[in-house]
Amino acid sequence: MKSILEFSRAKREQHPIVMIAAYDALMARLVAESEADAILVGDSVAMVVHGHPSTVHATLDMMCTHVAAVRRGAPDFMVVADLPFLTARRGRLAATEAAGALMQAGATAVKIEGVAGHEDVIAHLVESGIPVMGHLGLTPQSVHQLGGYRFQGREPAEAERVRAESRRLQELGAFAFVLECVPSALAASISAERAIPSIGIGAGGGTDGQVLVLSDLLGLDARFQPRFARRYTEGHAVVLEAINHFARDVRTATFPAQAEVLA
Questions:
Q1: Which of 38, 42, 188, 249 could be joined to 255 by an S-S link, Cβ 3.0–4.6 Å?
Q2: How does pLDDT run across 156-203, given as a tens digit for each residue?
Q3: Which residues are annotated as catalytic?
Q4: Which sequence spans correspond to the domains of the chain?
């Protein structure tokens, strides 16, 4: 995909949307060569790449650096970038400047967590020509307020809040929204009600698309295995064996071979 118009067409044609979260040029190039539709430069980069305990540690400079790297790796691909912690809460001017910086770094669109308290920001960004993707359910930037990474929408009041927020996002002009860690029946019914597509993560198969972090689907982190993230290869074991193979070759003087030595 190259534009938000293709998201709308995918929804109309019932073509499931495939998003991959990636953070650097090499991985972006691999995704761009694949059958995936879009790249998300998530604020999860603070955890996956920089080793922080939560996404609240992502900064605008950090996000811009990774967006620019991803754009260089995937120059013609749809790239959605997260607005980092508190960005949408500092008012329209600050949010517009931050979103503008992400767009200038190479983003096609920005993603904003939640709705309440910054509806005016979402509307202003859309009116300013900046495509906005919403994010509902489990919103990691609010992890401390939520009391941890807890499933959302099980209680009727919570479910109705998520449903109402999805409706409001559509009214405000968002082109799509992520539904994270909500009951599958709720996600499916919300997706059926909305004209804009939903992208699920831990929300069952009834959404209009799915998103996973590339390192999760590659199985690169043996210590992090969320239930919703299917491993499509055991990358941790593959990479570890390659490194150990190299170490053995060095120690047995079988690397470099004569053909690998520059004259």
A1: 249
A2: 999 999 999 999 999 999 999 999 999 999 999 999 999 999 999 999
A3: 180
A4: 5-232, 234-263
Of 95, 48, 113, 102, which is closest to residue 70 (Cα–Cα)? 102
* 3-class DSSP state of 29: helix
Alpha helix locations (H) across the chain? 5-12, 25-32, 45-48, 60-73, 92-105, 119-127, 143-146, 156-172, 184-193, 214-217, 235-251
Rounded CA-CA distance 53/61 in Å is 18
pLDDT tens by residue, 200-254:
999 999 999 999 999 999 999 988 888 888 999 999 999 999 999 999 999 999 9
The structure tokens listed for 57 are 């540690």
Rounded to whole angstroms, the Cα distance separating 17 from 23 reads 19
Gap between the Cα atoms of 52 and 65, Å rounded: 17
- Residue 141 pLDDT level (bands cut at 50, 70, 90): confident
CATH class label, 5-232: alpha beta
pTM summary value: 0.94
User: Using only C-alpha atoms, what is the Rg of the chain?
Assistant: 20
Identify whether the C-beta of residue 155 lies closer than 8 Å to the C-beta of residue 181. no
Q: What does pLDDT average to over the chain? A: 94
